[in-house]
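Write out the 3D structure for:
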Amino acid sequence: MATHPNFHTTPFGGSVQMTEFKFSSLYWRHIYSGPSPNQSNIIAADATTEWGQTLANNWTIYDGVGLNAKLVARAQGLHLYAGTWHNTFTIVFEIEGFKESTLQVIGASVEKEGEWSIVGGTGEFAMARGVVNKKLHGNIDGGDIIELTIHGFCRKQIALTKVGPWGGNGGSVVESEKPWKIESITILYQGVIGSLEYSYISQNGNKHIAGPWGSKNPNRAEIVLGPGEVVTAVSGTITKHNNLDVIQTLKFVTNKKSYGPYGNTGNAKVGTPFSAVAPNGKTIVGFFGRTDMRYLNAIGVYMD
């Protein structure tokens, strides 16, 4: 098939997950008269049918109704009369975390209570689908306050980032299959880290067990993550053991607590430190490394 230099398609090596979003207790201020309206008539209605009247709107959406309510978004677009009022506008978010992300909304106006369709989105809401429920909250000078509930789903691409590994070059490479969330981690150690094993949910929703990467050791530590608990940092030390660079100690930090360090923590000779800390908005979702089936020779992390 012929191609054009201005058009490109590239295979995506990651995965895509469906993300649900729901915003409630938002209040749209529909001001149509007075000194500061947030809509303006741009096309007059047909004198015979009364159809065709078109207005541009820059409606404001707040997180409350009081004087201290914070502006969180604007609904910018058009509404026109074609027997009923038809709306097509973009909700442009101004709140931190969603700033400049958008939702594309379309639908017919309804009296007092009803809903509009979400037919697209950008940024944090890429390819969104859903509904905006609206309900009359009350009247103010020159307009109305409409309570909004926004509920939908969007697609988020998962592109894993590999950080590391740290340690030696002994043994063979060990990997994980597109990890998405760590469920548990098991460490065996005596003097140094003998092995690491962990269970995780992959991007396709299946449960996997990676490892054990190493050999049996008498000391065992098992970490089982609770609901909503994710790994945010991994640190440790590297040391020389039997003429090999291996992982000496490991410590794991989640959004709820710290685990470890495990390994040869009592050795007066501290090994070379390393650490991986997930940036804000990201988590550590899996591990990779090297093992010679005796020790954990090296370890790295996957972040998303």
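The CA atoms of residues 190 and 217 lie 6 Å apart.
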